[in-house]
Amino acid sequence: MLFSKIWLPLLSLPLAVRAALSIKSAKVSINSAENTVIHSEALRSVPLPDPVRVGATDTLKISFIVVDDDTGKPVQPHQAFLRFWDGKALEEGIQPLRVDTNGKSKFELNMRRPPPSLPATTESTPLNVSLILGSFNVAPAHIQLFAAYLPASAPVVPHEEEVTFHLQLEIVHTFRPDQKHPPKLISAVFAGVALAPWAVLFYLLSYLPITVSQSLSTAPFVALIAAFEGLLLWYWADLKLGQVLAYGAALGLVTAAAGKHALGSL
């Protein structure tokens, strides 16, 4: 169906159509596996009124001569195809034909080795066989030949991976629930634990006789301890463990040096 819709209009685009194509001396025959003629009929008027039946081991043979309608002389068309059309399943098979310079052409369909282009067949539905001819300077022709009952096609064995191309069950993902903040009471307790060393530090410093010069000496040490607290807060918010360890190691060396200097000034 698709083939005829696409190619027939293309074949009818010559600049100057001077004639039309037709066939003569057309004949269809069915031979058995032993090459015995089972049925033979001349295609004097097409399409044939009665369909032909081809057995599972038979061979369908078609022969004809392409001629020019005006002159009656043999013509070699540029394109020739045999079309097998299943009007019920709306499927078709196209078989290219070779036409000699004298217009003669032959086609054989061996049902023991059917071509892949043949559509799937059933014994209850015939295929409509037609001939499509086209040439650059001659009007194309689509000639209905006959209907043919062919043996039913063998059932298609499903591929072992065919099921993977069917609709599958929906994959339902189970995501971890969003992180929840702890109760405010627990947060307040741990915040108090984190701030307790500072309270102890300031309490003990109140017992020390600290002068202004000593305060300036211990200020870097206190600031570095505060930086450690800030680093832990940063780790909780954004940093990764490896980054915290690297930054903490560098900050620890500086804090140790500042602490030694602060203790020496007391």
TrEMBL record:
Start and end residues of each Ribophorin II third domain: 52-134
Subcellular location field: Endoplasmic reticulum membrane
Domain Ribophorin II C-terminal, residue spans: 175-265
Acetylation listed as a keyword: no
UniProt pathway annotation: Protein modification; protein glycosylation
Origin superkingdom: Eukaryota
Keyword Transmembrane helix appears in the UniProt entry: yes
InterPro entries listed in its UniProt record: Ribophorin_II_3rd, Ribophorin_II_C, Swp1
GO biological process entries: protein N-linked glycosylation
Listed transmembrane segments: 185-205, 217-237, 243-263
Bilayer topology annotation: Multi-pass membrane protein
Pfam families cross-referenced by the UniProt entry: Ribophorin_II_3rd, Ribophorin_II_C
Alphabetical list of PANTHER family matching this protein: DOLICHYL-DIPHOSPHOOLIGOSACCHARIDE--PROTEIN GLYCOSYLTRANSFERASE SUBUNIT 2, RIBOPHORIN II
Family label: Belongs to the SWP1 family.
Task of the protein: Subunit of the oligosaccharyl transferase (OST) complex that catalyzes the initial transfer of a defined glycan (Glc(3)Man(9)GlcNAc(2) in eukaryotes) from the lipid carrier dolichol-pyrophosphate to an asparagine residue within an Asn-X-Ser/Thr consensus motif in nascent polypeptide chains, the first step in protein N-glycosylation. N-glycosylation occurs cotranslationally and the complex associates with the Sec61 complex at the channel-forming translocon complex that mediates protein translocation across the endoplasmic reticulum (ER). All subunits are required for a maximal enzyme activity.
Name of this protein: Ribophorin II
Organism expressing this protein natively: Botryobasidium botryosum (strain FD-172 SS1)
